[in-house]
Amino acid sequence: MTTTWEPVIGLETHVELETESKMFCGCPVDFNAEPNTVTCPVCLGLPGALPVPNRRAIDMIMKIGLALNCSISEHTIFHRKNYFYADLPKNYQISQFDLPVCEEGFLDIEGEAGGRVGIERVHQEEDTGKSNHMGGDGRITSAEYSLLDFNRSGVPLVEIVTKPEIRSATQARAYGLELRAVIVSLGVSDAKLEEGSIRFDANISVRPKGATTLGTKVEIKNMNSYRSMERAIAHEVIRQAQVLDDGGRIVQETRHWDEDAGVTRSGRVKEGFSDYRFFSEPDMVPMVIDQEWQDRIAGELPELPSDRRKRYQGMGLGEYQAALVAGSEPELVQMFEGAVDAGGSPPSVANWLTGEVVAALRRSDHSLAASALTISHLVELVGLVESSTISTSAAKAVLAGVLDGEGSPGEVAEARDLLQVSDAGALEAAVGQVISENPEEFERLSGGEQKLIGFFVGQVMKLTGGKADPKVVSGLLRARLSD
Amino acid sequence: MSARQTIRRAAAAMRDGSLTSVELTRAALKAASMTESQVHAYLTLDTEGALQAAEMADSELGAGDDRGPLHGIPIALKDNMVTKGIETTCSSRILSGYVPPYSATVVERLEEGGAVITGKTNLDEFAMGSSTEHSAFGPTRNPWDTDRVPGGSSGGSAVTVAVGSALGALGSDTGGSVRQPASLTGVVGMKPTYGLVSRYGLIPFASSLDQIGPFTRTVADAVDVLSVIAGHDPHDATSIPGSVPNLDAGLGRGLDGVKVGVVSEMQRDETEPAVRGAVANIIEQMEANGAKVQEVSLPSFEYALSAYYLIAPAEASANLARFDGVRYGNRVDGANVADMMSKTRADGFGAEVIRRILLGTYALSAGHFDAFYGQALKVRSLVRRDLDAAYEDVDVLVGPTSPTTAFELGAKTADPLTMYLTDVFTIPANLSGHPAISVPVGLDEAGLPIGFQVMAPALGEPTLFQVAEAVESIAAFDQEPELAGSLA
Q1: Is A282 in Cβ contact with B206 (below 8 Å)?
Q2: Which domains does chain B have, with CATH numbers?
């Protein structure tokens, strides 16, 4: 009999905060600067230098904690996490241990693979410098030498740790995407996975279904997209199940996801466990977060993605479309909200924005902000379609003209002669022409083959350059049939 | 020999035109040139920089630009405070040749106050020790008997003041490293309330215990030095916010009505009879001068030493981790980065530093944390609680600074535990963060100085100085080692 294995997944997420200055010194946070030019005695770990916490970073981590339904600790302290590494200037990282800023929260994930994911803790720490390993295959083991850049050293980093409650690779991905949406909506980080401003590590173990104890866990790193996160976790779960099915045992280790090969590979084996000798940071005093501070931050919280989606659904958007708009770039969300405020029908505005507008921008490689499209243009365009002043297909051409800077939708439609023809008299001739050109098909239509109506409407649209009102055309055709 | 030169006397003389800073500085440098070969108090003597600063001070004072009590006064710095452009070594081979790119806050404040910085003084490597023998650059000797140690770890700074190669000096006191060498060299040494003086730029030994404090010849001079270096520093998160207490508020007020607690646990049998006798004599005279004396028992003091020798090494094990040869200091090449770090540290640190790093690493390790570091933190809170309770009944606590007078070089280096015991009376004030001061009160039969310790509650500096000054005038100690140069 084969065992059914159940995966147990926990995610650790690091988010680089977009503060003006670093976590414990006044150096600016600047990732584009020349190497080692935004450093000072503190972030270089020079003898005698001392850390002073950045209160703006604490504001930001409190926002994250509140958005994740965490409780905020009244008293929080920093700890030293001790380990030697060349790009860690003090050879300890200032982090948090048993008194993090935020504890015990959750994030609700919608959709099929959804559910509530418990958040164990959200804590504040500092980033390390960067090692560039020169020569060999780019890893430290084969490098001839390494170059160190301390610009990143001391950048505020928030770590968000879930409980080991995630049950599938799909749910892990959904959690990652939802967490990113929350972080972006809070304005505390651009959270770009490809640039490393958000980074995910997964802790994975499997156990026989129904078991209550946890298996040996493996840490997966190097998941550089949400898709690779899902693939890596799915692969690792199967790998572990196979090892156990074959009578083997799981080794506690760190494995790296190899995107091209589609497998995880063993990195460094953790011997037993790492002893970081955490102890409270004696260079700082405990931080007191009083109710007033907490209330101020709670008052600054923006609308969260889940609330925004619910609100959009209340406006008549479908679940998928609501999520699509809510999860879009901020300028698109702003245009949507603005167009709705200006009287545009929410589902139509959403359709146009997420469909044709996005597609057209992608074709022209323009950003929405840089394009000529304004909120009033969008409202006008949607209105012209709804009032049947232009047809949907003509509207696409009108939009292209607007994006090209030819003017407002009305002006473009006029100039390009795209105003819809609804006058039955004017269309009668076109209908007649199409029938006479397609006698065989008209015979079959008359014989009851109803689906050919679409064919004839299409032919009339083509003949009129998209200007004909399809409803009127179809009425004229039916009138002919009943003759 | 005329009356001993002091900061206050020199400052007055510079203002009435009878003395210049250049003259004073030349006298200090001359004292250094006469004594250094015998005591080795300085690691770096900045003759040129000192004379330039003195000339500057004279011209500023001449122009009426008065920067306060230390303007033009020669001050020496323990070599664990970073000085921009001047080598800073912590008496360690690992930092030999290291020139910092920035100055400690105390150094900046001294410079803004017009002080003349004479140089950097010897210490036990990274301030770990009680004799200034654990220096990679050789020991400092006691000017009262050069076969004996000056105490430590700030032995170099203490000796500069004792021999007059500076009029004041800064040391750092983690477990007694200012007060104990002051006691053994016959000068005043003071540890302020934790957080009163910025630690920014002090190369740490144990961050939660370290505090910079002054060595001077008189209590009033200590007030002057502290008044220049004290005060909130935004670069030190443990620095006390708000204004500094009025440090000289108690000077000249005597002992009338002052409640003095004599700590039972500091009347140990192991203490040398001469020290016990001198301390008892002072207490008797304090009472005769109007103080209300009572015995106070602080049971947790028995465990303070053990707790200290877990907490301090634990913090040190992390504080000293940055000396790895990657970014600064000396590097010993290795097969790879880890090997390079390992060889650099093995070569760069002395035996006592390595011992404490190992001790601290062990105390913080999983499986040992609760039994060692955790337990030590509990003792630390007990010490605080005992002291808080005691200060409800008394204004100050008194006792000896050190159980012995200066011991011979090499007497305690073979057995670290006997060396650690020399800090037994000074450690409680570091664990509690309270201010304390050592005042010289006499000599033993061998002609070696004896120090008397006064302790006060947090920010109790005004009362501390009041009582210390009264003790100073009771003792009327005005002797100098024969080695001392004349600063008159």
Answers
A1: yes
A2: 7-252+467-475 (3.90.1300.10)
